[in-house]
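Following up on my earlier thread - several people asked me to post the actual chain instead of describing it. Fair enough. Here it is, all 142 residues.
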Amino acid sequence: MIFTQTHTQEEKKAYFQNLRTRWAESKKLATNDETAQALYKEAQASTKSGKFSYWSFYFTLQDMKKEGFSGIPYIDCKTFQGWKESGFMVKKGEKSRIDGIVWLQFGSNGSVGNDIDPTEEETHVYPKLYHLFHTSQVESIA
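Reply from S.P.:
Thanks for posting it. Predicted structure:
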């Protein structure tokens, strides 16, 4: 969902509440999933950045399973730009069907990210979805 002036405050609130609910459900399942924990360690070792939390990994893994995709998040699914940087391109007509999630922190002074002063009274954390493509949706640029 891209927010424009046509979305009401209630619609935005419902959207963010839905994301928070999806996150909470995923996090609850992730706690005791030893297979996913092993896959996460493999993904951490195999990716360039390796900067994603287990909870984000599991959220994406659940989305992959729901869509019928196999593999490991961040290895077998990447953003459009991630595939491009790896020498692949998304096949024409393919749509992203896998979501990833990142949490953005905003301070009352308009600052964004991890550098927010923790003593600042008003900080807000919002989920933001990003979209991923599965390896079956890409082809080599060769």
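Residues 106 and 124 are 5 Å apart (CA to CA). That should answer part of your original question.
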